[in-house]
Write a structure and sequence with these properties.
It is built from five helices and 15 strands. It has about 210 residues and is of the alpha/beta class.
Length: about 210
């Protein structure tokens, strides 16, 4: 039996007139799970069904989650995938990382739009942490959900199988730093948020250190 005392805290971390973002921290790796919700329709998408499905499923029901998107296929980001699918919520992932999931419903293409109520969420392929890593930008807002591609202080770990440091650097430079303004709010898969403006001046430092 799930003890409500142990329930991870759900925090609304950002909102404007059209969109709100909630975050829970779950699992042994302290994964950030985000719910991006359209305030005009009540529809929402959950980013990374990471763990603790006993906590995630009530949140999905309460906040109107209609779908799940995975930033990548590493084990710590996918533990709740079977449970959310069993609850009737479709899970999407990139073709390159699909084989890392126990199951899924849909494949994500680069530079496409996911409609969440009246919100438009743009997909951005950012390989390097894994071959199929993907970020998500909510159009009309400063929000960029970066998964394990970009963190405060540098790129995600590329020492795992399928990771590649030069590739993740190209993804960050070409697909994030050159595309998004300095005020863009970066919401990573673990830890604190940051901004493009806080991180972009340090790109050469990361290249020089090699991680």
């Amino acid at each position: 039996m799930w003890d409500p005392v142990d329930m991870p805290e759900l925090v609304r971390i950002w909102e404007d007139a059209t969109c709100e973002v909630h975050r829970m921290v779950v699992g042994p790796m302290d994964n950030n799970v985000y719910v991006v919700r359209c305030r005009r329709t009540g529809d929402a998408v959950l980013v990374d069904a990471a763990n603790e499905h006993e906590a995630l499923l009530p949140v999905c029901e309460r906040l109107g989650v209609r779908s799940v998107v995975e930033t990548h296929g590493h084990w710590d980001h996918i533990q709740a995938v079977p449970a959310v699918r069993e609850a009737g919520i479709a899970v999407s992932v990139t073709p390159e990382d699909a084989g890392m999931l126990p199951s899924y419903d849909l494949l994500l293409a680069d530079d496409s739009v996911i409609e969440v109520g009246r919100l438009r969420v743009r997909t951005i392929a950012t390989p390097g942490h894994t071959p199929g890593s993907m970020c998500f930008a909510v159009e009309g807002t400063p929000l960029l959900l970066s998964g394990d591609t970009l963190f405060p202080g540098g790129p995600g770990n590329t020492s795992f199988a399928g990771g590649d440091f030069p590739t993740i650097i190209r993804s960050i430079e070409d697909r994030l730093f050159r595309r998004f303004g300095p005020d863009t709010l970066v919401l990573p898969g673990h830890g604190a948020s940051t901004t493009i403006g806080a991180e972009s001046p340090h790109l050469q430092e990361w290249v020089d250190r090699g991680w």
